[in-house]
Amino acid sequence: MTQPFSKLTAIRGMNDSLPGASARWEQLEALVRDWLKAYGYRNMRTPVLEHTRLFTRGIGEVTDIVEKEMYSFTDSLNGESLTMRPEFTAGMVRAAIEHNLLYDRAQRVYNMGPVFRHERPQRGRYRQFHQIDVEALGMTGPDIDAEMIIMVARLWKLLGITDVRLEINSLGQAHERAAHREALIAHLEKHKDVLDEDGLRRMYSNPLRVLDTKNPAMQAMADSAPKLFDFLGDESRTHYEGVCARLDDAGVAYTLNTRMVRGLDYYNLTVFEWITDKLGAQATVCGGGRYDGLIELLGGKPAPAVGFAIGMERLIDLWGQFQPEQTPAECDVYIVHQGDEAQRRAAVLAENLRDTGISVIVHAGAASFKSQFKRADASQAAIAVILAGDELLAGVASVKMLRQSDQANESMQQQVPLNDLVAFLKDKV
Ligand code: HAM
């Protein structure tokens, strides 16, 4: 006996985007591309699959992402370990090095698309999600850090989003982190009794991450821990102040959060997050910072870099709270018809209309006028064109305005000679 076929569903934490919702995504993507263009960013596309070692090396062995969130598998053909990208930055840097992109100039580049992390799904946290990833490669000063933050502020403005706040921090340079690390480990050793399993495990491997705990029993210990910010030398402080001054110039408000560490190990100096109270537990819409060591770490000629990524599912959710969705019309003109001859004329007319930039749906197959009009209405087309019967034989079509707002200045239905139809409709759409 054959086994019953169990119902197929999408993988947990991976979402379908159906036509209505997808229209919203397309709208957002178009807006985002214009916004990026306004700052001179150019698109780059990199593979979804990369060698696992790119991420273990780039993101860091002792991070949540690398330790437990990557979709990795062995290529059965050659035994190589491959990973579905859990973020863009490492791949963008790999590609920049591989194609020698930085040999004579700095690069402003972006990438947009799906990334994969095996996290526990909940609102705003998915296993396949999408990022807008923006990277400035080869630029060193606080001016570019600030420009990147200010450009995100502009995006909020473009989308009509107001309830986001900016937190920034400086992670200094490697030697400053090393000095702080020593002091921090001493602090953790003194409070070993309050550390949970994760804390004990990371105490020596990634002590900074121990402070990023959500465990209430560890809060007092984390609050009293030595702050990395207090270990910053003059150069790091000057860089930080340079960023702040430029944010002040632009009128972009921020708060210093000395506990912010970010979930990836490649950062130094400036790090920042945009956070909102409107998305429940997954409150960070955008995160990024400077990663001056990554290009060299991945085998490139040393070059500074800074970037950020925005979570698109979170952004769409947030945007919808400020600007409610309006499902766009499926087409401008919906053609209904009766009879074989009319159907064929409809197809020709539709092509002529599309030549002029009008979008058209021709009702497929045969159906009663009533059901065709129901479908035309549902499409939200502005205009229905009716091809049928004696009218058609006489060389005319009926044109019906379907939208309420058109009724004021248009008679609801009128006859138009077929020869004039394209010009007539072009005027109306
Ligand atoms: P990230 O903070 O790991 O940074 O991710 C950036 C954003 O992606 C988050 O702020 C959040 O909005 C979104 N996000 C993260 N995980 C999920 C998830 N499971 N479901 C839905 N959205 C999520 C990076 O990925 C860095 N590569 C950013 C960067 C670029 N730094 C420098 N350049």
Report on the architecture of this protein:
- There is one protein chain.
- This protein is an alpha+beta fold and 429 residues long.
- The protein folds into two domains: 19-172 and 232-322, 2-Layer Sandwich (BirA Bifunctional Protein, domain 2), CATH 3.30.930; 333-428, Rossmann fold, CATH 3.40.50.800.
- It has helices spanning 19-37, 52-59, 64-69, 89-98, 142-159, 174-190, 197-202, 207-210, 219-223, 234-250, 294-297, 312-322, 340-355, 369-378, 389-393, 421-428; strands at 42-43, 49-51, 72-74, 81-84, 107-116, 128-137, 164-170, 255-256, 268-276, 284-290, 305-311, 333-337, 360-362, 383-387, 396-401, 413-417.
- The strands form three sheets. An eight-stranded mixed β-sheet has the order 1-5-6-11-10-9-7-8, with helices on both faces.
- β3 and β4 form a beta hairpin.
- α1 runs antiparallel to α5 (142-159) and α5 (142-159) runs parallel beside α10 (234-250).
- The protein is elongated.
- The mean pLDDT is 95.
- It binds histidyl-adenosine monophosphate (HAM).
- Residues 87-89, 117, 119, 124-126, 129, 131, 133, 135, 263-264, 284-289, 291, 307-309, 311, 313-314 line the site of histidyl-adenosine monophosphate.
- Homodimer.
- Residues 25-316 form the Aminoacyl-transfer RNA synthetases class-II family profile domain.
- It catalyses: tRNA(His) + L-histidine + ATP = L-histidyl-tRNA(His) + AMP + diphosphate + H(+).
- Keywords: Aminoacyl-tRNA synthetase, ATP-binding, Cytoplasm, Ligase, Nucleotide-binding, Protein biosynthesis.
